[in-house]
Amino acid sequence: MSSELSEAVVQSEVSTAPLTGLVPMIRVNDVERSVAFYRLLGFEIGNRVPHTGPAHWAWLYAPKVDNWKHGPNLMVVRGELPIPPDSQSVLFYLYATDLQALRNQLIAEGVKVSEITYPEYLPKGEFRTQDPDGYTLMVAQSGPNTP
User: Fold this and answer.
1) What is the pLDDT of residues 127-140, one digit of tens each?
2) Tens digit of each residue's pLDDT (9 = 90 or more) over 15-48
3) How confident is the model over 45-83, as pLDDT tens digits?
4) What angle do CA 23, 124, 99 make, to 5 degrees?
5) Which of 23, 30, 80, 145 is most buried (CB neighbours < 10 A)?
6) Is 29 exposed, middle or buried (0-12, 13-18, 19+ CB in 10 A)?
7) Domains and CATH numbers, the chain
8) For residue 74, how far is the Cα from the chain centroid?
9) Cis bond upstream, residue 85 (ω within 30)
């Protein structure tokens, strides 16, 4: 490790974190359609542009989380070229308080979801689904060692 990098690491250990959050922003065909889907997962609109009429951008957050700043946040923006689902190199991983109940609710709303699987790294289970634009969402059961 170079001395410059070592110094930067030492400085970062004693200072506050330079970032306070990460909010993904995805291109979607229809902001209102995406908002309706993400509401099924507990999101609500925190802000939108324009404030009236069809939105071309919206910030979504989870109002039922104890501290919304540390809960899930997502921005959706209308775009002409959403990422084709088969060429995604990033997927979204979400954690649910009751995985089975959420899965059942999504099925009741007509959302296609996979069976719950129990991989070694997540023994409490996870399932896969896609949003209306084809973005892959993995939903896992939250626990003491997960968000």
Assistant:
1) 999 999 889 999 99
2) 788 888 889 999 999 999 999 999 999 999 999 9
3) 999 999 999 999 999 999 999 888 889 999 999 987 656
4) 60
5) 30
6) middle
7) 20-141 (3.10.180.10)
8) 6
9) no
